[in-house]
Specification:
about 70% helix, flat, mainly alpha
């Protein structure tokens, strides 16, 4: 994020400078390529794992209150 905007609040830090979105473009390309190379079974397994994690975290939050 800071790489894009220059970051910070000090004078001249990121103010008045153009944004550089090259890093975001690269990240999007790499992430897209990584997900495209995975099989449907791998994606499905990952989704099941994520759902289980969300369920576990929700249960932990409910128990905390």
């Amino acid at each position: 994020m800071n790489k894009e905007t220059g970051g910070g609040k000090k004078s001249g830090s990121g103010r008045g400078k153009p944004m550089h979105t090259a890093s975001s473009h690269k990240g999007g390309r790499l992430g897209g390529a990584a997900s495209a190379s995975r099989t449907a079974a791998e994606r499905s397994a990952s989704a099941r794992k994520a759902a289980a994690t969300r369920k576990r975290n929700a249960a932990a939050r409910d128990k905390a209150h």
